[in-house]
Write a structure and sequence with these properties.
Two copies of one chain form a homodimer. Chain A has five helices and two strands, in the order H-H-H-H-E-E-H. The first copy, chain A, has a two-stranded antiparallel sheet with strand order 1-2. Chain A is 56% helix and 11% strand. Chain A has one domain (11-104): Winged helix-like DNA-binding domain superfamily/Winged helix DNA-binding domain (Arc Repressor Mutant, subunit A, Orthogonal Bundle), CATH 1.10.10. Chain A is globular, with a radius of gyration of 17 Å. Chain A binds a DNA duplex (30 and 30 nucleotides) through residues 1-5, 25, 27, 43-44, 47, 52-62, 74, 76-79.
Chain lengths: 110, 110
DNA sequence: TTGTTATATTGCAATATTACGATAAATGTA
DNA sequence: TACATTTATCGTAATATTGCAATATAACAA
């Protein structure tokens, strides 16, 4: 049905899923990596960086912003986007924790 | 159009996106976390753990396996699934790297 | 005000995803 | 062999996502 049964899972699980889903697209990964590369904030030159229409990129930026992965501040006519440090850190910790737990368990299956 | 323009991005970006997309669903996160909790491998009791139909869970397991996040080995009538350590580590590193890069740059934007 | 530039929104078409019942396939057991 | 158990696959319905052209909005400049 294309609809996810969110009620069936914990708040944490749903939140993590939303965060990951927001990044889980090559265009949005490219945007995140571009923001990372151009130290200073970036505005609309992402459009000239990626081979996607301006409308499409605006949509991807919106999704990233909604998920709290980036933030944008108006800068005259342009808009300055940059990464939300905390959220990236949260994701880094999530996977690090799992990784560590796997390493600590000495089960020899599979 | 619902179709992603994969040709426009790097192999790495596409691969990362596929990995993240495979996890980016509350049911699949729940599966991963369950696999993590029950030290030893798990088989079909994920079905009794989650309020989803067996067919649905089998589908989610397939996606996780296709993405290389879990692996499964036949164990009699049952199938024993467990996490693929390396892939989780790869993701942990991906976000750690980004997180570190953000911390190292002293730009004061946004 | 008028024009220009930068971004956002709308409306659509094409695909993808999610979920599940029904059924198949595989393996072990009586 | 016949049956039970476990997992996979198929088919289908409902919904979500992706991408873009067209258009709207916002802010500045002349």
């Amino acid at each position: 049905m294309g609809i996810t049964k969110s009620e069936s899972f914990t708040v944490q699980q749903n939140e993590t899923a939303l965060l990951l889903k927001a990044i889980a697209h090559p265009a949005r990964i490219a945007i995140v990596e571009h923001l990372l590369k151009v130290q200073s904030c970036i505005c609309g030159d992402i459009v000239s960086e990626l081979p996607l229409a301006q409308a499409t990129i605006s949509q991807h930026l919106k999704e990233l912003k909604n998920a709290g992965i980036i933030k944008g501040s108006v800068e005259g006519t342009a808009i300055c986007y940059c990464l939300e440090k905390e959220v990236i850190e949260k994701l880094a910790q999530y996977f690090s924790t799992i990784s560590n737990q796997i390493n600590n368990q000495k089960s020899t299956c599979c």
